[in-house]
Amino acid sequence: MTDTIEIDPASPAANSRGGKDFSAFLHELRYDDLPDEVRIFARRWLLDLIGVAAGGVGFDLSRIIRNHAADHFGPGRHSARMLFDGRRVSPMGAALAGGMTIDALDGHDGHKLTKGHVGCGILPALLALSDTGKPVTGEEFLTALVLGYEIGSRAGIALHRTASDYHTSGAWVAVACAALGARSLGLSSAKTREAIGIAEYHGPRSQMMRCIDHPTMLKDGSGWGAMTGVSAAYLAADGFTGAPALTVENGGVADLWSDLGERWCIFEQYFKPFPVCRWAQPPVRAILDLREQHGVTAAEVDRIEVTTFHQSKRLATRRPNSTEEAQYSTSFPAAVAMVRGAIGPADITGASLNDPEILRLAASMVIDESDTYNAAFPARRFAHVSLILRDGRRLTSSTTEASGDPENPAPESEIRTKYHAYATPVLGATRARAIETAVEELGATPLDTLTDLILVAPDKNGDV
After folding, report:
1. What is the per-residue pLDDT for 463?
2. Which 3 state secondary structure label does DSSP give 443?
3. Distance (Å, rounded) from C-alpha 369 to C-alpha 398?
4. Of 99, 102, 91, 195, residue with least CA distance to 151
5. How big is the CA angle at 420 (ends 274 and 418), to the nearest 5 degrees?
6. pLDDT at 464
7. Beta strand 384-389 pairing with 80-81
């Protein structure tokens, strides 16, 4: 016996009437309707995502999935280039490969209440839909990107409100990607409803905590969600049915969809300064603050004690054997922060995984959870840290949150610095700067100016 889900007959998807319902908002929003600050944030997250993708393209996860897409998602009547690869595959294959390339390096934007990441899935889906041969303007691309954030954020919150298990981002990103597909294909309100229903039903309801406890290349399911959403739009265009999408039409989530065009969820995303799980970043930040305040070095530290929330403690890998295990750990990146004073892509892979000083601090780290910090999660993520020095002194941080939260946004300069730190070593300075300029000017210049820079493989000589 299962509970009956009440579908609101006046829900934004079930009812196509009204000025701000789901379908009208999706299909009628135009670039001129976007507040200037919304456009600024769209470019901000776009540049950050591109940088993370460039940083992740050399990881095994990205290489394997791009080759898989080339071998098994061959182009048919529609095709699209893969992100930082250039080979043409089906739009679904391009969305899959792009989403997993970004997810290969856990440095992309996220949303606290979704407990996941919107941009990681919607950007590659949008790129795939935009590269199929149908002309797309830069203004339309930015508008669709904003729509992806607005729909994906709400769908993610809705799923967490209505489902007992903690699903990966792909579960609800699929809904946003299907919506973007419906807009791209010009689907009717009725077919749009079928598209998001198909996507929600087939979206990867994968268990996030399984990958936290056993980190592998499965990651956050964003690529699979992007693939599912794009596929759902094409299926709906051909007459396939699948409505309703309960994350949109369940009466218990109607409040989340009632303020489309009034509350902009794109402002609610957080910026990740480090390419590791967000749950590890409060203790990392606390360690960096203590390191700077007291001028202390790793050699002076006997051990580190961390008090955090339960989910952060579950990132339990002490000695990672892969970059995935390093990214889904609290003790390892915290030790990296103490030893190196920063965490970048090179610090979570290769020889860094065997650095004896990092491993010493990670192995001896004491991690406890706080009832107070647990109660604050997920809206707030707190931790505090004590450094126990070899001379017997104890240096203790204040209660600390990760930097880059929407309540205290990262400055533009920090986002650009991170972008170049990730992109320039892979793409070369000339191409990295050209991409940055193309993002800045997107809307005034054709979309091809940007896509012809990011939908091709990195040059072997590191510059273009």
Report:
1. 46
2. coil
3. 15
4. 195
5. 25
6. 36
7. unpaired
Mind listing the pLDDT tens digit for each residue in 276-333?
Answer: 999 999 999 999 999 999 999 999 999 999 999 999 999 999 999 999 999 999 999 9
Six token digits for residue 303: 């051990």
Identify the bridge partners of residue 52 per DSSP, sorted by sequence position.
Answer: none
Whether the predicted model's global pTM rises above the 0.90 cut: yes
SS3 label, residue 430: helix
Within 8 A by CB and 6+ apart from 209, the residues are 166, 314
Is 29 strand, coil or helix?
coil
**What's the confidence (pLDDT) of residue 373?**
97
Give CA–CA dist 245/7, Å, rounded.
10
Structural domains for the chain: 22-270 (1.10.4100.10), 278-396 (3.30.1330.120)
Give the amino acid at 446: P
The kind and range of the H/E element at 217 are none
Distance CA 338, CA 361 (A): 8
Spell out the residues 6+ positions from residue 46 whose beta carbon is closer than 8 angstroms to its own: 123, 142, 145, 439, 442
What share of the chain in percent tops pLDDT 70? 95
Residue 3 binned pLDDT confidence (cut-offs 50, 70, 90): very low
Radius of gyration over every alpha carbon of the chain, rounded to an integer in angstroms: 22
Task: Look at the alpha carbons of 321, 324, 330, 335 in this order and tell me if their dihedral is positive or negative.
Answer: positive
How many other CB atoms sit within 10 Å of the CB of residue 307?
A: 23
- Band of pLDDT at residue 15, cut at 50, 70 and 90: very low
* Pure H helices in 104-207: 119-130, 138-162, 170-185, 189-202
The Cα 383–Cα 307 span in angstroms is: 5
Q: Do the beta carbons of residue 105 and residue 421 sit within 8 Å?
A: no
CA distance 407 to 289: 19
Among 84, 54, 108, 60, smallest CA distance to 325 is for 60
Q: What is the DSSP letter of 339?
A: H
Contact 106, 277 (CB under 8 A): yes
How far apart are the C-alpha atoms of 387 and 373, rounded to whole Å?
Answer: 20
